[in-house]
Amino acid sequence: MTEPLLSIDNLHISFPSDAGPVSVVKSVSLTVGQEIVAIVGESGSGKSLTGRAVMGLLTRRADVTATRMTFQDTDLQTLNEAGWSRLRGSGMGLILQDPKFSLNPAHRVGRQVEEALLLHTRLPARERKERALDMLDKVGLPDPLRVYSSYPAALSGGMGQRVMIAAMLINRPKLIIADEPTSALDRGLQDQVLTLLRSLTEEFGMGLILISHDLQQVSRYADRVIVMRRGEIVERLPASELAQAKSAYTRGLWAARPSAATHGTRLPVFEEETPA
Ligand SMILES: Nc1ncnc2c1ncn2[C@@H]1O[C@H](COP(=O)(O)OP(=O)(O)OP(=O)(O)O)[C@@H](O)[C@H]1O
């Protein structure tokens, strides 16, 4: 592994409830270098909250503590809203499941791809457009100029997800968090988008946290895997060894891996007696 971009030690997240604080992420420690680290686990195991905490995107109700949360030279725990927003516009990027909810239907694609440049750089309009067209080309969209001038409604799901990736990469972030980035796409498109993310991660020297419920997919595209259950990390292993995982929990997740028939559904939550 290369020098870590992100280091998290002892992350705890809890929410207030009538019965007192409910702890949902417990003592999670992880590092991410220039590599793809997958976080897998059953529904509700704390994957998304962990990813959101890294980007400072949890609601104010969440109580977040950690003994260390650093991204490059930045101590994330000292950032105010302005600091987070600068970091999210340049150092880190988030890709969500469905471009339908992330792209604004009222604005042309070009404007949305350029947004981070508009907010976080002083580049003139002509250069912003050039960089946007270049990035649309890099993510494999044919006829970038036409896509640039289109509205999101004119795009297919796979094209929309490529536009999202272009918008997120335009400022060359060092860390991407992709939360179920392909679950809204069919199997063939999933592979295309993950192949693209993998090659861009390598080309730009980025780190990628891939949050996924699809262990088979993770075994093909990630370098390392962190397995979570009920807010805790239960196993860490190279992605290539997922099929031979030691813990019965991970083996259970592997056995329950989505097939064409279950595509789009979530992983089952295992009952208490499932051995960890
Ligand atoms: N705002 C909130 N208030 C209280 N509890 C929450 C809140 N957001 C999430 N949780 C709880 O925290 C736990 C972890 O949620 P999280 O979304 O991280 O799970 P996940 O592993 O990403 O699951 P999935 O695969 O279903 O997306 C869940 O039990 C969830 O109900």
TrEMBL record:
Topology of this chain in the membrane: Peripheral membrane protein
Cellular compartment(s): Cell inner membrane
Principal location listed in the UniProt entry: membrane
Coiled-coil residue windows: none
Keywords: ATP-binding, Cell membrane, Membrane, Nucleotide-binding, Transport
GO molecular function: ATP binding
InterPro entries: AAA+_ATPase, ABC_Ni/Peptide_Import, ABC_transporter-like_ATP-bd, P-loop_NTPase
Keyword Transmembrane helix: no
Cross-referenced Pfam families: ABC_tran (PF00005)
Domain ABC transporter positions: 6-255
Family: Belongs to the ABC transporter superfamily.
Official protein name in the record: Peptide/nickel transport system ATP-binding protein
Species whose genome carries this gene: Pararhizobium capsulatum DSM 1112
